[in-house]
TrEMBL record:
It is a multi-pass membrane protein. PANTHER family: NATURAL RESISTANCE-ASSOCIATED MACROPHAGE PROTEIN 2 (PTHR11706:SF33), SOLUTE CARRIER PROTEIN FAMILY 11 MEMBER (PTHR11706). Coiled coil: none annotated. It is found in: Membrane. InterPro entries: NRAMP_fam. The keyword Nucleus does not apply. The chain crosses the membrane at residues 37-56, 77-96, 116-134, 141-159, 179-201, 221-244, 264-287, 317-336, 342-364, 376-400. This is Mn2+/Fe2+ NRAMP family transporter. It comes from the Bacteria. It comes from Paraburkholderia terricola. Its main location: membrane. Keywords: Membrane, Symport, Transmembrane, Transmembrane helix, Transport.
Length: 406
């Protein structure tokens, strides 16, 4: 009974923590520009992250190592520095974008411009991490993120043509603006298959003291939680496809356009739901990414780490998330557009994928870490496909940023 409760709670918190600034903005842009044609990259990205999170939880439960610690232990510190630096840079940009997301929500609620909110938001996140526990962050904040299910309600209320939605699951050739089409595809995949998500998941499994008895629960949480989260992203795309073109919007280039997704369906309360969704979802992402920065550094260099420890017991760990929040708040406080930063950082996330996924695949086939719980043929085939996809994304992401993201 306890395991069933943990599975249900894990699935619920996965759903609540799935949608954030990256998934929201890329899905909204895809729906506005290409209607229902871009359901397929959300589906592909969701399937990839299901496999990667399941593997991350299985690796942590069996080996009692996080992925970062496993890479450092298996390949050595010199090799580890390559994915370490790449993930650190990308996470800093994504963290800045998420701080921008909360700041934009507060601007919408109060009228005070978003740069003024960046430092207070970072300070609130720091205080939550300093005083909170992993359970509070993992479950408490993510449960608040369930307000993002309002996008599902909006998509259903709009009564879309479900045959067209189903047709969008299959990859298609763009009818216009191919550079922008493929740039949004890369951005959606980058928002879905973000390394920080499965790296954080493995750290959380160790924080929660998982062992091999949790393998079934891990499989259920990874599959159901990520699948339902993907459904929310599809709902955002559906709402964008029906709402934005009807109001003459075919390119989302201003964050003030985004509330229309819910306002067009629910009126004033749609605005309230959007502000709450953006604020809670992005705040949860801020906590997760700031923690992941601290996990990455502490695990890579062998420091004490753990959100459940008191700050005096792991001062280096606390110093990292403190610095990460302070540094990431600076661009938003300086007036950088959070939407443009988000889209750019999602494309850059795609570039960093091979650096983490390739060594992770090696770990999942090393019996010294996973014993008889290593990858089977299907899992290895899927991960090889993800690696090939990741290399393609790494090659095309930056040129498409210039051609399609301008």
């Amino acid at each position: 009974m306890k395991k069933i409760f943990e599975i249900c709670l894990g699935v619920v918190t996965s759903v609540g923590g799935f949608l954030e600034m990256g998934s929201l903005s890329t899905a909204a842009q895809g729906g506005a520009a290409f209607c229902l044609q871009l359901v397929w990259p959300i589906v592909v990205g969701t399937l990839c992250i299901i496999f990667l999170t399941e593997m991350a939880g299985r690796f942590a439960a069996v080996s009692q190592h996080t992925i970062a610690a496993g890479i450092r232990d298996r390949f050595g510190i010199k090799f580890f520095l390559l994915p370490f630096v790449a993930v650190l840079i990308v996470n800093t940009l994504v963290l800045s974008a998420e701080i921008g997301g909360v700041s934009v929500a507060l601007e919408m609620a109060t009228g005070l411009k978003h740069p003024w909110w960046a430092l207070p938001v970072a300070l609130l996140a720091w205080f939550t991490l300093w005083r909170g526990t992993f359970g509070l962050i993992e479950k408490g904040v993510s449960l608040l993120g369930l307000v993002t299910l309002s996008f599902v309600a909006a998509a259903v209320t709009l009564k879309p043509d479900w045959h067209q939605v189903a047709a969008g699951v299959l990859p298609s050739v763009p009818h216009h603006d191919p550079a922008n089409y493929w740039f949004i595809v890369v951005s959606i995949l980058g928002a879905s298959i973000t390394p920080s998500l499965f790296l954080f998941y493995s750290s959380g499994a160790v924080e929660d003291h998982w062992d091999s008895g949790y393998l079934g629960a891990n499989r259920a949480i990874a599959t159901l939680g990520m699948a339902f989260g993907g459904c929310i992203s599809v709902a955002v795309l559906i709402a964008a496809a029906y709402v934005f073109p009807a109001h003459g919007i075919t390119r989302v280039d201003d964050y003030h356009q985004l509330p229309l997704l819910l306002v067009a369906v629910f009126g004033f309360w749609g605005f309230v739901l959007f502000v709450a969704s953006l604020a809670f979802a992005c705040f949860g992402a801020i906590l997760q990414i700031a923690l992941e920065q601290a996990y990455l550094v502490a695990q890579g260099f062998g420091w004490n780490w753990g959100e459940n420890r008191k700050p005096r017991d792991d001062p280096g760990f606390c110093l990292v998330y403190t610095c990460a929040l302070a540094i990431s708040a600076i661009p938003i406080a300086a007036g950088v557009d959070p939407l443009k930063l988000t889209v750019f950082s999602m494309a850059l996330t795609a570039v960093s994928l091979p650096l983490t996924v390739v060594p992770f695949l090696v770990l999942m086939n090393d019996e010294r870490y996973v014993g008889r719980h290593g990858n089977g043929v299907i899992s290895n085939t899927v991960v090889v496909a993800i690696i090939v996809l990741a290399f393609v994304l790494a090659i095309v992401a930056l040129p498409l940023q210039v051609l399609g993201g301008a």
